[in-house]
Amino acid sequence: MNRVIEKRVELKAPVSRVWRALTDYREFGEWFRVKLDGPFVPGQVSRGQITYPGYEHVKWEAVVQKMEHERLFSFTWPHPKSLDKKDAPPDYSGEPTTLVEFRLEKTANGTLLVLTESGFDQLPGDRRLEAFRRNDGGWAEQMKNIENHVSKNHVSENHVA
Amino acid sequence: MSRRSHGRVAAKRRTHALVFAALGDATRLSLIGKLCRGQPRSISQLTQGAKLTRQAITKHLRVLETVGIVHSVRKGRESRFEFDPEPINGIKEYVNFVSEQWDQALSRLKSFVED
């Protein structure tokens, strides 16, 4: 059964570039769509606010686990019961978490990024995103549209920076 | 509240870990194999052809019942057991949702670093 998420992405960019996009809190925020309060520090809580349209009320909270230079970046994060505004939990303490790991490997053309997320079997059986369920496929569709739009902006912003 | 809906509510409170634990046994998997074909079965029907005693089969069914994968329904003087895919589907559905979110986020990351 599918208990672990694993994604492998070939990126046409040097490992050092990808490492910066993952571990610099401002750069991470750009593509992940979150405004973080400060830098990632292993063992410490990272806090911020999601900037994804429609989800600006959702808090970001993660505990940074490992930062092995240009090799491994990992954190644990909670999976709240709902992302709906009215049901949003005041804080995530006591919420069950999963482990997210980004591993980087140098390849001939750039970088292989392997993302894994594990620990789903620790989540309570009722852990569903009610907001998403109500919207059904609507949100995924909307994300796609916006993504096309924003990724262009992102690229150009990044260029200037 | 009927026994059945009570079972469902209780099942929702169980953790996925318990569901996986319940599935991690050859006898229980073979019981699910028999039950997931649709028809509720009695303990006698489920014991037929099995090497285990009626008591042992009952014990395994109770484990599956605790996590909500099977429910017992009373038919006359006999209990019958039926399969409920809900607890298993719940996990799959949620993991698929998170997985899709990562696809989207990683494609944004790709655009971000490649240009």
Fold and architecture overview:
The complex is a heterodimer of chains A (161) and B (115). With 161 residues, chain A is an alpha+beta fold. Chain A has a single domain (5-160), classed as 2-Layer Sandwich (Alpha-D-Glucose-1,6-Bisphosphate, Chain A, domain 4). Chain A has four helices and seven strands, in the order E-H-H-E-E-E-E-E-E-H-H. A seven-stranded antiparallel sheet of chain A has the order 1-7-6-5-4-3-2. In chain A, helix 1 crosses helix 2. The longest helix of chain A has 23 residues, at 138-160. By secondary structure, chain B is of the alpha+beta class. Chain B has a single domain (3-84), classed as Orthogonal Bundle (Arc Repressor Mutant, subunit A). Chain B is 66% helix and 12% strand. Chain B has six helices and three strands, in the order H-H-H-E-H-H-E-E-H. Chain B has helices spanning 3-13, 16-23, 26-35, 43-47, 54-66, 86-114; strands spanning 41-42, 70-75, 78-83. In chain B, strands 1-3-2 form a three-stranded antiparallel sheet. In chain B, 29% of the residues are buried. Chain A binds chain B through residues 1-3, 5, 7, 9, 11-13, 17-18, 21-22, 27, 30-33, 79, 113, 115, 117, 120-129, 132, 140, 143-144, 147, 150-152, 154-155, 158-159, and chain B through 11-17, 19-20, 23, 68, 87-88, 90-100, 102-115.
What fraction of residues of chain A sit in β-strands?
25-35%
Quickly name the level 1 CATH class of chain A: Alpha Beta
Largest sheet of chain B: 3 strands, antiparallel
Side-by-side strand order of the widest sheet of chain A: 1-7-6-5-4-3-2
Which blocks of ≥5 consecutive residues of chain A have pLDDT under 50?
A: 128-161
Dominant shape of chain B: elongated
Distance linking N and C termini of chain B? 60 Å
